[in-house]
Design a protein that fits this description.
The complex is a heterodimer of chains A (about 400) and B (about 150). Chain A has about 400 residues and is an alpha+beta fold. Chain A is about 50% helix and about 20% strand. Chain A has a five-stranded antiparallel β-sheet with strand order 2-1-5-4-3, sandwiched between helices. A five-stranded mixed β-sheet of chain A has the order 7-9-10-12-11, covered by helices on one side. A two-stranded antiparallel sheet of chain A has the order 6-8. In chain A, strand 9 and strand 10 form a beta hairpin. In chain A, helix 5 runs antiparallel to helix 7 and helix 8 packs across helix 10. In chain A, about 20% of the residues are buried. The longest helix of chain B is centred in the last third of the chain and has 18 residues. A five-stranded parallel β-sheet of chain B has the order 2-1-3-4-5. Chain B starts with 9 loop residues before the first strand and ends in an 8-residue tail after the last helix. In chain B, helix 2 runs parallel beside helix 4. In chain B, helix 1 links the parallel strand 1 and strand 2. Chain B has about 150 residues and is of the alpha/beta class. In chain B, about 30% of the residues are buried. Classes of the chains: A alpha+beta (about 400), B alpha/beta (about 150). Chains A and B meet through helix 5, helix 6 and helix 7 of A and helix 1 and helix 6 of B.
Chain lengths: ~400, ~150
């Protein structure tokens, strides 16, 4: 008996250290409060005894909220909930509350024990998060507006430059043919012939090349910015089929480059089918573009499971990427080989974004001369033994 | 009333960019379209034209209209034009083709919601633009087929 009492005293002492505790009679009048209750509510014990909890009511919750609480505990069931209270100085605090009805022999509650935890900070954090989410949504809207500007307003003048450039070219042709029709006497003097036949067409070629480049960049930028907002559909991916399809879609370019392709057995992964497939297409496209002029192109894809991730390695024997350039290979608009084949300079940036969004990553290994190997890691199809749950 | 003009609707280009309007017109002409063409530099101007008081021009003419509508314009934009055409008095001899620079699925969706099913993107590449204009010309002859047993 003494043992039990001692144990109960210990538990009560521990409880008083941890929680805000109050006891009331069946009508809700306070019969006991611990120090934590007094300190959070800022009321002295004498001020609280005999009062009911309306003394700390903040007016935040509805009548129905408290009615539900009373119905629950009066019928002998435990009530749990979060309550906003008002301290003596008017400041507000939130408590996570459990009310335990102590039932008498008659089946009626004889008293209630309320145990509470201060969650004011957590509530403030949650409110802060909601504000951040709102700010973020606002920023996304702004981004949307920028994307719209890119897609329409910046392209609009390009259409004019290119279109009227073409009209100038046609006008030159007309002038030349008018001279030709006029016969011998109408041969254009060389001062006119040279600008018409050489200088203007050359200027127009440069103008057009510039416009096309700009159009490609705008399209790429647009694609990249949309990527972050597109919904992903994560599913189990049969990577053998997915990679084989990516290669067969580029059969024509691969054959034209005389490429030898080898695809090893690949473990299944988890990711977005369309976007993952686009990453492989992009890597294949790069392998073709940056093949070594002096040797027949070989591309191999191998796969393995490593630390709970499926890792796929796409290796080529192309011109490679010098070690000092590898870090920049994934940067936006960074073209490693400006003299080389044209591209929007976004393929690898997009690939990295795609993989990051589906909890994967991409990195490159290259000795420079011998070709490049791109490694892609995505989650495994099956949870791996030993991997974090 | 003669339906002889039914095959040759008047083309109303609505574009705030005069250059685009000229290029569209020249391309339609190069595609051997001989329809009359009229240019409006914003949405309000074309609505004023279509809903002008008095004998409405769209019914006064035996022919019909094809609206080549840009989406982004100051004041009354293309979407607003589509909205007002939907809520205003019906114009039976009017077809709307949205012609825009935007490459945006959301914009296509908006056009569809507003009842316009023909959406053409202005390509920056001039040859593609010419191609699009040619297809547009072909399409227009299908919009207003000659009346059955035509005369």
């Amino acid at each position: 008996m003494r043992e039990t009492l001692r144990e109960l005293r210990d538990i009560k002492a521990a409880l008083d250290q941890h929680s805000i505790v109050a006891m009331t009679d069946p009508s809700g009048r306070i019969t006991h409060v611990n120090d934590k209750f007094c300190s959070i509510s800022q009321y002295a014990r004498e001020e609280l005894m005999g009062q009911d909890h309306r003394i700390i009511n903040s007016g935040y919750h509805s009548k129905a909220f408290f009615r539900d609480m009373w119905e629950t505990i009066a019928s002998g069931r435990i009530w749990k909930g979060e309550i906003r209270n008002r301290a003596k100085d008017g400041s507000l605090y939130w408590v996570d509350t459990t009310i335990f009805p102590c039932m008498g022999r008659s089946g009626q509650p004889t008293q209630y024990v309320a145990i509470r935890t201060d969650i004011t900070e957590r509530k403030a954090d949650a409110a802060q998060l909601t504000r951040y989410a709102g700010d973020l949504a606002e920023k996304n809207k702004e981004l949307e507006a920028i994307v719209n500007t890119l897609s329409h307003d910046l392209r609009s003048p390009l259409i004019n430059v290119q279109g009227f450039g073409k009209q100038l070219a046609r006008a030159c042709d007309k002038i030349l043919s008018a001279f030709a029709e006029a016969g011998d006497g109408g041969v254009a003097p060389s001062e006119v012939r040279e600008p018409l036949e050489l200088e203007i067409p050359q200027a127009l070629r440069f103008i057009n090349a510039g416009i096309n480049k700009m159009d490609t960049l705008l399209a790429g930028l647009l694609r990249f910015s949309r990527l972050g907002r597109e919904a992903l559909s994560i599913e189990r991916l049969d990577m053998n089929a997915l990679v084989a399809e990516a290669f067969s879609a580029m059969r024509f370019q691969l054959d034209a480059a005389g490429a030898q392709v080898r695809i090893g057995p690949l473990p299944d992964g988890r990711g977005d089918r369309v976007q993952t497939s686009q990453v492989f297409s992009n890597l294949i496209d790069n392998a073709i573009k940056f093949r070594h002029p002096g040797r027949a192109l070989r591309i191999s894809v191998e796969g393995r499971v490593e630390a709970g991730q499926a890792v796929y390695s796409v290796a080529d024997n192309g011109i490679g990427i010098a070690p000092e350039h590898q870090a920049r290979a994934f940067e936006m608009f960074h073209r490693l080989n400006p003299e080389g084949p044209a591209g929007e300079g976004l393929g690898l940036t997009i690939a990295r974004r795609v993989l990051e969004r589906q909890k994967g990553r991409i990195w490159v290994e290259s000795s420079g001369e011998g070709g490049s190997t791109f490694h892609l890691a995505i989650p495994c199809a099956e949870p791996q033994p030993g991997a974090a749950p | 009333m003669s339906r002889a003009g039914a095959l040759s609707p008047e083309i109303l280009i609505v574009d705030d960019d005069e250059g685009h309007a000229i290029l569209t017109r020249d391309n339609l002409r190069a595609a051997a379209l001989s329809n009359p063409i009229r240019h409006f530099s914003d949405g309000q101007a074309v609505l004023d034209f279509l809903y002008a008081p008095g004998p409405a021009p769209h019914t006064a003419r035996a022919g019909a209209y094809v609206l080549l509508l840009d989406t982004r314009m100051p004041r009354v934009d293309g979407f607003e034009v589509l909205r007002r055409l939907r809520s205003g008095p019906a114009l039976p001899n009017l077809e709307v083709i949205v012609l825009t620079t935007a490459d945006d699925a959301g914009e296509v969706e908006r056009c569809h919601t507003l009842g316009c099913d023909v959406y053409l993107r202005k390509p920056v590449d001039y040859d593609k633009f010419a191609g699009a204009a040619r297809r547009l010309g072909l399409f227009m002859t299908l919009l207003f087929p000659p009346p059955a047993g035509g005369g």
